[in-house]
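Lecture notes, continued. The same structure-token format from the folding unit now serves as the input rather than the output. Read the line below as a description of shape only.
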């Protein structure tokens, strides 16, 4: 064939340039003669690179320590990434991924050299405002299909002793605090306590207290850790003739270099604590009076509202009581006599408006307790009189039916406020000798031609 004495070299597996970038192949051609002759040829095979590896950072996380009050633009750290590829596939560029730090872009805090990976601070950091922040950097190669990887950078701000201690208490006028010491105080008596704070951290915020000036008589001692000022001995009138001591207290931190501040305390000797503190009570009493005034105003306001509410409830109850309808009934005695109750006769209507009665306002109801044996309760209509308007037909109607009745006034809701009290079915002509004991002056045993009386507003209305 045309391919006789032509041979092809093929691979028996995948090639990895990063493992072996070249091969030397020796080809030997040998005949079958006697003796056999042979020749050889060496072939150099170079494996070309392909962008199959992404850059890799030397560390997944970088912790960077930066001392506060640094110079803007100062170098702070360098990040590095490696790519096993070659050529353009190994050309790495660095960048910072966008994020926010305290509401501002990370690009206002740090920057990076895209070729070297050097990081620079773009501002002066303050430990008291920002203690640490984090961001991510990216390494990207320049291959046809770009590959990349990321790493995290933690920037920790290191505190610097740039804040002096600040005295919080005691605070007095013009920078001098006044404290009172009774002359009878025992050694170790607590005069006051100096309280201070430092905005720094660590050793830079550890404080110690001492008396710089004013303790020449060794009257006081200071606890250097807690800031407590106590008496070192008893007060002697001969040894301590003066009535006050002006002390200068120093508060110092343990930073490098150490910073300090001072406080002035005037200790005044008094006969008693009450006397010494009477001056302080003046300002305290003013504040207390102001508080009492506010409390008193609040109590008065609540009391006024409660009184108005109670008064309204009383007025409403009285008004409802006045408007209540009084139902009055006649009293039925044993036998066939209908006796009017004495208490009923003395009651008067309390309505505010007078209204003319009509027959629709009155209904006569038959009593079931009479001795005549009348059956079910019946209702007797009221005949209209030509003169009085009420009562004209009582005598004629009931003269035919000699049954005994008790009368109940049934008023319509509209007439609930009228002056009508009750219907009085008393007949003096049929009374007996017991008239003198009858509260109404008559005992009714039946009906006659006499018309019943109507009591209105405490007086008997005439039916004529």
């Amino acid at each position: 064939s045309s391919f006789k004495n032509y041979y092809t070299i093929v691979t028996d597996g995948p090639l990895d340039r990063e493992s072996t970038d070249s091969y030397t192949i020796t080809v030997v051609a040998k005949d079958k003669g006697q003796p056999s002759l042979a020749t050889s040829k060496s072939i150099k095979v170079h494996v070309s690179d392909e962008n199959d590896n992404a850059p890799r950072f030397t560390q997944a996380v970088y912790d960077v320590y930066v001392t506060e009050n640094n110079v803007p633009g100062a170098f702070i750290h360098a990040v590095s990434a490696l790519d096993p590829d070659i050529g353009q596939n190994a050309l790495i560029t660095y960048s910072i991924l966008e994020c926010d730090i305290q509401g501002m872009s990370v690009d206002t805090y740090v920057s990076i050299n895209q070729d070297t990976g050097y990081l620079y601070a773009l501002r002066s950091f303050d430990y008291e405002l920002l203690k640490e922040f984090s961001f991510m950097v990216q390494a990207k190669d320049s291959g046809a299909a770009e590959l990349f990887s990321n790493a995290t950078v933690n920037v920790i701000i290191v505190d610097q002793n740039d804040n002096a201690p600040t005295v919080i208490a005691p605070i007095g006028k013009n920078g001098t605090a006044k404290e009172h010491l009774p002359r009878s105080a025992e050694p170790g008596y607590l005069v006051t306590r100096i309280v201070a704070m430092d905005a720094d951290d660590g050793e830079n915020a550890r404080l110690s207290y001492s008396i710089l000036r004013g303790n020449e008589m060794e009257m006081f001692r200071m606890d250097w850790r807690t800031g407590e000022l106590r008496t070192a001995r008893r007060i002697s009138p001969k040894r301590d003739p003066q009535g006050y001591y002006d002390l200068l207290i120093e508060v110092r931190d343990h930073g490098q270099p150490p910073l300090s501040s001072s406080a002035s305390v005037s200790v005044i000797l008094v006969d008693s604590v009450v006397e010494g503190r009477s001056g302080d009570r003046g300002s305290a009493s003013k504040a207390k009076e102001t508080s009492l005034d506010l409390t008193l105003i609040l109590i008065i306001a609540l009391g006024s509202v409660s009184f108005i509410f109670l008064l309204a409830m009383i007025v409403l109850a009285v008004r409802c009581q006045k408007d209540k309808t009084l139902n009055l009934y006649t009293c039925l005695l044993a036998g066939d006599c209908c006796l009017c109750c004495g208490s009923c006769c003395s009651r008067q209507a309390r309505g505010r408006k007078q209204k003319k009665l009509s027959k629709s306002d009155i209904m006569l109801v038959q009593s079931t307790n009479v001795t005549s044996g009348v059956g079910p309760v019946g209702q007797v209509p009221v005949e209209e009189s030509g003169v009085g308007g009420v009562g004209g037909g009582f005598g004629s109607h009931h003269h035919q039916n000699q049954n005994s009745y008790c009368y109940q006034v049934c008023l319509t809701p509209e007439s609930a406020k009228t002056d009508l009290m009750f219907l009085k079915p008393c007949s003096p002509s049929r009374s007996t000798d017991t008239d003198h004991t009858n509260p109404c002056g008559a005992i009714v045993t039946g009906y006659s031609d006499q018309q019943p009386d109507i009591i209105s507003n405490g007086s008997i209305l005439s039916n004529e």
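Point for the exam: The chain has a mean pLDDT of 75.
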